[in-house]
Amino acid sequence: MAENKDGQEKTEQPTAKRMSDSRRKGQVPRSRELNTMAVTLGGVITLVMMSGHFAQELRDIMSSGFTISRQEIFDVSSMLVRLTESLQSAFMMLLPYFLVMVVLAVASSVVLGGLAVSSENLMPKLSKLSPLKGIKRMFSAKALIEVVKAIAKFVLIGGLTVLLLWNTLENYLQLHEMDLHQGFDLISSLVGWSVILLASTLILIAAIDVPFQLWDHTRQLKMTRQEVRDEMKETEGRPEVKNRIRSLQREMAQRRMMEEVPKADVVVTNPTHYAVALRYDQNRMQAPKLVAKGSELVASNIRQVAGESQVPIIESPMLARAIYFSTELNESIPAGLYLAVAKLLAYVFQLKAYDEFGGEPPEVPEDLPVPEDLRHD
Length: 377
Fold this sequence. Notes:
The protein has 377 residues and is mainly α. It is built from 14 helices and four strands.
């Protein structure tokens, strides 16, 4: 089990901050075997696929290079021009292949851990020149794993090479019986497919190395419990800062709540200790919803905002306490309070009709029914 300098075991998985800091320093999982496999196998396949193009271009370059007039032979400048043209043609012939190799090299390098470049890694470190540290790296577990991988690659590629030569030996022995074109086609096919099969053995090495590199990277970033606690303190800040943040969050929540009071249909009060604001839209809601609630100073603010917004304020101590203690913000009231709130809303709607059309004023409902299990004295 990995330990830190204090002797504590690193048993905790790395946090998101630890992973982010590691990436910022350029420490990301990398697999050289994946890079080698991609470049080798992709390069061989691309070379085989472009072999016809290369053959035609080489034929044209050779044909052009050896087609020289008598006048050009004795003209040094014309020979230099021909050489330049041949080099340009060769470069343009190989350019697509070079581009494919560059793309494969870059893609295979960043596919595992992403692109992470750090200035720290670019700076020279004198510690890397230390002979003692070099000897330690030579006899480390990581060096041992590299030796095992090298032996595995040698055994796989060597064994497959022997197997391919044994199975294709008769084809090679028949080359002397063929004409030049047939022999060239046969040898090209045998060599091309043999190299592809040999390069494919690297897939097995990469398939083992990639999970190992991911595991090893995570293992190196593991943390002790003390490191996790220290990081939490650093991330969350001091207690007074956290309390200030919570205070600001409460203030923002209260402001949002107060913005809902003018939209309420009715405010029920204790009358002074508690206040709750209800809203009901029969087209959208199955039951009345609590949009604001508070006690003491917050209750006073709710009553003040409701009065300024001409929202009806009704004193019903038992119902106000029942709603306050049983219902959270933006939730529907309990089913046990449906009847009491229905009577209250009916009065509010009658009051609005009276204010608009006149007539006899409605009577304020009294003794609103509140079930025993919802009462709070």
